[in-house]
């Protein structure tokens, strides 16, 4: 599949956008597409130097700055020692890098009064995310969405991924046909990070086992799962389920729901309370309070727990 049309992708040349550009093939191809195919004029190129690749990190930043200037786009950058921050937080480098990027986007969003952020995620990224979420135990085939809203550093930003229907091979072809220069990230060949292990080891192994390209099958399955998930979410957000937004969940109402709606109602309730690390396992623990009358309290991540008392469940 070729790159989408601006209309299909929902990108307007008349609007202002922040664009995340690392200097690698995908983000540089995205910027070229925005400049020459969509013909955007009001772009702020955003580059976060993660300080993970020594001298190369600085060269990446310089490359992106020069590219932005050559396109007559504005440029914003910041430098963070992601490895040091991850050690301080006791979190993975990947999770820390993502959090720092979102904080960076939030700061630039506030400065330029623009909440739209365009990212270069493509279909292969989506498939990798689906597999990572699946084997982490999310319980659902969830991946990357073409549009999503998040809050970071107190700022609500809209993440747009117009290339999410485009495969890596299509980006390779686009880069080659347009003679686009980009920075090669040698760390992509390293298996230090989980995503690289999924990309470099797991997916090739699955291809070998099944003697076919499994990525398209994973992508289709995730699309069906996410459509069904959106349908259930729409039901949960209807006025009929307004009772989910309260501090307590009545057991009488929960018991009337089938298992799918019951689980989604609990998931929505837990996320509404901003509990960290909520997934399939945590939802099933809360459901055990409904099914197992001998259990009156369960522990959740972050030092929280849910208790059952007087025919309601609540968070303490």
Task: Explain how this protein is built.
With 316 residues, this protein is of the alpha/beta class. It has two domains: 6-125 and 143-193, Rossmann fold (3-Layer(aba) Sandwich), CATH 3.40.50; 239-315, Chorismate Mutase Domain, subunit A (Up-down Bundle), CATH 1.20.59. The protein contains twelve helices and ten strands. The protein has helices at residues 6-9, 25-37, 55-70, 82-89, 93-112, 123-136, 168-177, 194-210, 214-236, 251-255, 259-272, 280-291; strands at 17-20, 43-49, 74-79, 116-118, 147-152, 155-160, 248-250, 297-300, 304-309, 312-315. A six-stranded mixed sheet has the order 3-2-1-4-6-5. A four-stranded antiparallel sheet has the order 7-10-9-8. A hairpin with a 3-residue loop joins strand 8 (297-300) and strand 9 (304-309). The longest helix has 23 residues, at 214-236.
Strand content: 15-25%
Radius of gyration: 22 Å
Query: So what's the CATH class of the largest domain?
Result: Alpha Beta
State the fourth-level CATH superfamily of the largest domain. Answer: HUPs
- Number of individual domains: 2
Q: Please give the number of β-strands.
A: 10
Keywords:
316 residues; alpha/beta; Rossmann fold; Chorismate Mutase Domain, subunit A; 2 domains; six-stranded mixed β-sheet; four-stranded antiparallel β-sheet; 12 helices; 10 strands; 49% helix
